[in-house]
Write a structure and sequence with these properties.
Layout: H1 3-11, H2 25-29, E1 40-43, H3 51-57, E2 61-66, H4 69-77, E3 84-88, E4 91-96, E5 99-103, E6 119-122, H5 131-144, E7 150-157, H6 172-179, E8 183-192, H7 198-202, E9 210-218
């Protein structure tokens, strides 16, 4: 999808993917990661996700990235402290206590300007992209990783021919294609969402819908 598509969705408040609660699997699966307090978490295509607040409440530093000014503004409107404004490499950068928000095209994010990244939290990011853009996205993710960076990824799997994305179907085989040269993939969670997400059935989905969550850890 082009950025104009997402701008249009936000301007029309058609943001059905946004969750007004913490992603339920996040606190349940988090102990698996053993991530020390103070670690730096990168959230690609973050929108106004309140998962970022959860991370900060747990003692982490968050770097959110999104191209949509309205999304980041709505997140900042709920923040209890002021943000300062800076700019770098074509990005507007908003900073507050334990968080910075980069407004701009994620694929143009400068790796050397972010500092050490301990975890990349891919919640509904890779599945927001069509297949033609996912390889470029994965290459950018790899550029942003350090030797010890972990990746937490949520995906959906379904018959792509039955429903047009987003969200798009991303299989484990595709994740392995993108990441297995650098990471070990561990499936943390698998659940049918076919009955729960009836909207997708109205869009044509008729066979199955699986949600999966993976933890990618660097190969030793």
């Amino acid at each position: 999808m082009e950025l104009s598509y997402w701008h249009s969705r936000w301007q029309k408040d058609k943001t059905g993917w946004h969750m007004d609660i913490i992603y339920p699997q996040l606190p349940r699966l988090w102990p698996t990661l053993s991530l020390p307090k103070g670690s730096r978490i990168l959230v690609p295509l973050c929108g106004k996700s309140i998962d970022m607040k959860w991370f900060i409440d747990q003692g982490y530093y968050v770097i959110g990235v999104d191209a949509i000014e309205k999304a980041l503004s709505e997140f900042m409107d709920t923040w209890s402290e002021a943000f300062s404004l800076d700019s770098s490499h074509g990005f507007q950068i908003y900073r507050s206590n334990n968080i910075e928000l980069w407004q701009g095209d994620f694929l143009k994010l400068p790796p050397t300007k972010l500092g050490h990244i301990d975890l990349i939290y891919d919640k509904a990011a890779i599945i927001a992209l069509p297949k033609s853009k996912r390889d470029t996205y994965a290459q950018k993710i790899l550029q942003l990783c350090n030797i010890d960076t972990q990746i937490f990824i949520q995906t959906f799997e379904y018959e792509q021919d039955e429903m047009s994305g987003p969200p798009f179907s991303v299989s484990e085989e595709e994740l392995e294609l993108h990441y297995s040269n650098h990471f070990d993939l561990d499936l943390l969670h698998k659940q049918s969402k076919f009955d729960e997400l009836a909207e997708f059935q109205r869009r044509g989905l008729s066979s199955y819908l699986k949600e999966k969550v993976y933890l990618l850890t660097p190969c030793m």
